[in-house]
Write a structure and sequence with these properties.
alpha+beta, Immunoglobulin-like, eleven-stranded mixed beta sheet, four-stranded antiparallel beta sheet, 10 helices, globular
């Protein structure tokens, strides 16, 4: 009689851990929590983990669907597109269950980049106004992905996202991100959720999967470069040498993608705002292929090949321009940022050359940047009748003896200077290849007219410096960014 009792007891002892594993296997992905916003008008993917082969039922907004956990435990339940609204309850039932409250359907945006995107609202010049604006918007919700690095792609973010009502305080959130979201929510009258995915000092390659970089001839050697530095560091450390610093993972392939972006696989979103580039300005020529790979990955993860991305073109920095064309890395990098949007469909950028700080890479004027991003989104994504785009130089032609004009698009009523002074910042290249300041600059019915100082004209450049002097803007106040036009490509009459 004792043996069956002992076996029964052993059975209990042996089965208990197994049962505990089954109970603990069920969980919802950490991005989901109370007070969040889910994307409207797109298929909704809700995901998590459970014991393999377990059927999971998801109920939301009077809709219900089921999914089966795969062999790795991951399940993805898809709900049909839902109109904006709420609040709703999200219920998930598998081997365990969970319920989320105060969930809304609206517009979800990702605020990504490096330190100027991560800069907190409480530290910017317009902190009080940003907080006051957010306080009036209870349907604006914010959350941040915990910062960190990983050697391999992670399946989930480190801890449960804390979705918060922006009306309860935004001082610790991205100043650019919340300024953008404030204006977006006010302009749409819909719930808006914004997810901060930003790390100071990060290079774009740290946000791109390692296998993608390894398969691209332009970037494949970067992985070997990091691996070599890491081996040198580890060898020095093993010998007790402490003077060598560990290679920064925010500057090398994939580490931030692995930890902070990969776990958002299957997230539905409206778009991305991207403030990054300071750390890549020294290798501008590699940026376009890197950006293409970066946005392609996000579009694949969100199942949206047309996911919009809006870039913040870098503001002014370093010493004030004195020569017509200067060899500053930031000056050329802004031009590359503009070229990115020509190479990548469904991308655009805002110009910020009327903001910045000559001595500080972290300027405190952030609200106007977020506002310009919001105006761009409201016009180009949501079809609002707003002046959201920067002026763009589109033509160069002769209009008289040794006098020329440059035509622009996106003027919204006219061309002006943002400081009410005479126009400046245009350089002209003579037929010998030398650069000079253009003379006789004048604004005439939405065009900029000028004359070369020496006679003969080969090309023009505008704002070609780290801290340029140009002051052109459209009627809405959006500055003109750096551009280059040659007579051969201008399509002149």
């Amino acid at each position: 009689m004792k043996i069956p009792f002992i076996l029964a007891l052993l059975g209990i002892v042996l089965l208990s851990p197994v049962q505990a594993d089954v109970d603990n296997a069920f969980r919802l992905a950490n991005i989901f929590s109370d007070h969040m916003v889910l994307q409207a008008d797109q298929p909704l993917r809700i995901w998590g983990w459970d014991t393999p082969e377990t059927t999971v039922t998801v109920t939301f907004a009077d809709k219900s669907t089921q999914a089966k956990a795969a062999q790795d435990g991951r399940w993805v339940a898809m709900l049909s597109p839902t109109d904006t609204g709420g609040p709703y309850t999200l219920s998930v039932q598998g081997s365990g269950s969970t319920t989320l409250e105060d969930v809304w359907i609206g517009q979800v945006w990702i605020a990504a980049g490096q330190s100027n995107m991560a800069m907190r609202a409480q530290y910017c010049d317009e902190a009080e106004q940003i907080a006051a604006d957010s306080k009036e918007l209870p349907l604006l919700r914010i959350t941040s992905i915990p910062q960190g690095y990983a050697d391999e792609p992670q399946t989930d973010i480190e801890k449960r996202a804390r979705w918060r009502l922006a009306s309860e305080g935004t001082g610790g959130f991205s100043a650019v991100g919340v300024s953008f979201a404030n204006d977006l929510q006010a302009g749409l009258g819909q719930p808006v959720g914004i997810i901060q995915v930003a790390v100071g000092g990060s290079k774009i390659e740290s946000w791109v999967p390692r296998d993608v970089l390894a398969g691209n001839p332009t970037t494949a050697d970067w992985i070997g470069r990091y691996d070599k530095k890491l081996k040198e560091y580890e060898a020095a450390k093993a010998k007790g040498k402490t003077e060598m610093r560990e290679p920064g993972r925010n500057k090398y392939a994939a580490f931030l993608y692995n930890k902070m972006a990969a776990p958002l696989q299957d997230l539905s979103a409206s778009g991305i705002i991207w403030y990054q580039g300071e750390s890549n300005s020294g290798d501008s020529d590699d940026y376009i292929p890197l950006f293409r790979e970066w946005i392609s990955q996000w579009r694949e993860m969100t199942h949206n090949p047309n996911l919009p991305v809006f870039i913040v073109q870098l503001p002014f920095y370093h010493e004030r321009q004195t020569e017509p064309v200067e060899k500053g890395s930031w000056g050329y990098f802004r031009y590359v940022q503009a070229k990115v949007t020509e190479a990548v469909p469904h991308s655009n950028y805002v110009v910020t050359l009327d903001t910045g700080n000559a001595e500080d890479v972290h300027p405190r004027q952030k609200q106007v940047i977020g506002q310009r991003l919001a105006a761009l989104a409201l016009e180009t994504v949501y079809g609002k009748d707003l002046p959201g785009q920067h002026p763009e130089a589109v033509s160069l032609k002769a209009i008289g003896q040794n006098r020329y004009s440059i035509g622009f698009e996106n003027l919204y009523g006219g061309l002006k200077t943002f400081d009410n002074e005479a126009p400046r910042g245009l350089a002209v290249q003579d037929t010998d290849g030398e650069w000079h300041w253009a003379q006789g600059l004048s604004i005439d019915k939405g065009t900029l007219t000028f004359q070369p100082p020496t006679g003969g004209l080969k090309a023009v450049r505008y704002n070609w410096a780290n801290n340029p002097v140009g002051n052109l803007a459209n009627a809405a106040g959006h500055p003109v960014g750096p551009f280059e036009i040659t007579l051969e490509t201008a399509g002149q009459d």
